[in-house]
Amino acid sequence: MSAMSQEPGTVTGSSDAAAFAKRTQVSTDPNDWVPILKAGFVCTVAHLEITTLDGQLTIRPRCVPMVYAYHEEDGRRLLYLHGSIYYPDWIPVSLKHLWSDDGVSVSLTATVVDGLVVGRAAISTSLDYRSVVVNGVARKVDPSARAKTFHALSDQVIPNRWSELRPIDDTDLNTDGQNHPTIGVLSVDLDEKETTVHAKIATHPEGPEHETQRDLDYPHAWGGVLTVRQTYGDPVPDKHVPPGTPVPTSVQDLVKRHRAT
């Protein structure tokens, strides 16, 4: 990992600043943020919903979780965002208000939690984590290019799953334009000039922060870190799977890999 810069903040004391630099680092280097994006598959996307009704302009903040995939193609780094673009009007939407030919400005975050920092006081409870914040423009993916986005999304969630799926067809992709797809894909160009990307990594190598001698002397108090790991349970087939059908190799490998770590 490349050298990461100390996050700007309000810490003024030299000892506090040194401790802060040890536990919180920020970087705009792709060598730091690309591995974090590859490690997850769920992000939170924020945008502004702008509507006009009877001449009245309304601006509402919106924030939705979406499945994402990191993808590289022709020297460009991209994020694909996947979500439903149709809901009844009374249900909060995800991609519906982002579905624009011109693109919509978004701010998205992806976070991997590595540990729960158990403090002796409420103020010192914290997390060890790796996160990425992206500020850019989300644009809908043309139907003719949508197959590769679903390939990337499938393999980000379950590596090597694509070859085991029912082949994607024109109905899925809406290449003839005769139907309105319920599932849409957006892309964010991470190398676009206006896009900003930064990684933030927080660790607590010396235990909980913000603790005083009063906390350390409190009777029966315990401080430390609980490692957080992702794991999966046993695969459970749905009612449409014929008896005796084996679990796909990609699913078996996913379970084994996470249980092994």
Q: Any low-confidence stretches, pLDDT <50, length ≥5?
A: 6-14
Mean pLDDT: 86
Helix/strand-derived category reads: alpha+beta
Strand order of the largest sheet: 3-4-5-8-7-6
Main sheet properties: 6 strands, antiparallel, barrel
Helix content: 10-25%
Please describe the topology of this protein:
Layout: E1 5-6, H1 14-23, E2 24-27, H2 30-39, E3 42-53, E4 56-73, E5 76-84, E6 104-118, E7 126-140, H3 146-157, H4 170-173, E8 183-189, E9 196-202, H5 213-216, E10 224-227, H6 249-260
Antiparallel strand pairs: 1-2, 2-9, 3-4, 3-6, 4-5, 5-8, 6-7, 6-10, 7-8, 7-9
Keywords:
about 260 residues, single chain, alpha+beta, about 35% strand, globular, 6 helices, six-stranded antiparallel β-barrel
Question: In a nutshell, what does this entry contain?
Answer:
The chain is α+β, with helices and mostly antiparallel strands and 261 residues long. Helix content is 20%, strand content 36%.
